[in-house]
Amino acid sequence: MARRPSLRRVFIAAVLAAATAIPALATPANAAVRPSWTTGSAAGCGATAQVVAPTATADPSDNAMSPARRSLLKQIKASGVRMLTSASCRDRGPGHPAPARRSAAGRSTAAPDGTAHPDTVYSETSNNWSGFENYDSVSYTQVTMAWTVPTANAPAPAEYHAAIWPGIGSGDSSSSALIQDGTDSDAYCNAAGCTRHYDFWYEVYPAESSKTVSGLSVKAGDKVQTSVIYDPSNKSVLFFFVNATTQKGLSITQSVSGLGDKVDQSQVEWIVERPSVSGTLTALTNFGTMTFSQTQYTDSSYPDWVPGGYAGAESQITMTNCKDTQNLAVPYGWTSDLLTWYDVWVNAGKWESC
């Protein structure tokens, strides 16, 4: 069922229409044109990857700037972070496929007062994903989410992993990319104790290995936000990373031409994942109870951000072990603002191949 336009949407659309009718001030012919963006090295990242950062003269109202860049600039200005101008990557490991999901019957969540909850929520299970997934008859263009990086707790001596991310795409086809970025909270433990690792990362799946980003540091307890912005006009992606605790940010742009050639824009998701290593699903880091905020997306039908809990159809995905006999992580949502949800760790499970 398609979303019905709210009064807020109608009002914003009218404001935008009025704004576009105002002519821009002409630039004098002899005025120097200053670049709005700088590009920097992204060694070891994707083949076409570059670090991009706005200059002091960058203006989000500049209609010569692509919608994707304008949106990124607005997010940078809103976050108040200092943008890095170079970074590097290393292979995080082989890409991991989207989960085989098993659906239960849908249930209506429409509130009697007309509150814009999803029209239909489907309860599903997955062996590596826990979270929410939206899919309407639209083309998704942006997704974002904020969280506090969890400590990589370990219930016993072993190796544990947890990847947290927003993304666009299903990962079900080699011809259409799944694009995602987020953080890792990993623990390598023995009887003497644990070594823990925390990183930012991004991925264009399935064509490339996921990339751990060096240069923008992150640790347990840091407040972070990541965004994925797809520009279908030139088949490129902007990955945006914010560490609000250190007040630093980073954006990497990359073409998807030759990497599936386009992005699967049919769905958008916000996920806690136990990744795979060499085809084997890992044990899940004990992250406790996590709160996810600023869960939002944009799509082809509307120019402004939409709360993640506002959708025509949505899947609520519980992570289970391969035999579906034990829950590993369970999502709960949404709060009244439709921007916030929770994920609860239940069990680490074990390394296993489903």
TrEMBL record:
Alphabetic keyword roster: Signal
InterPro entries linked: ConA-like_dom_sf, Peptidase_G1, Peptidase_G1_sf, TAT_signal
Record field: compositional bias (Low complexity): 98-112
Record's keyword annotation contains Nucleus: no
Region Disordered: start-end pairs: 86-126
Signal peptide (residue range): 1-31
Pfam family, one: Peptidase_A4
Keyword Metal-binding: no
PANTHER family: ASPERGILLOPEPSIN, PUTAITVE (AFU_ORTHOLOGUE AFUA_7G01200), PUTATIVE (AFU_ORTHOLOGUE AFUA_3G02970)-RELATED
Official protein name in the record: Uncharacterized protein
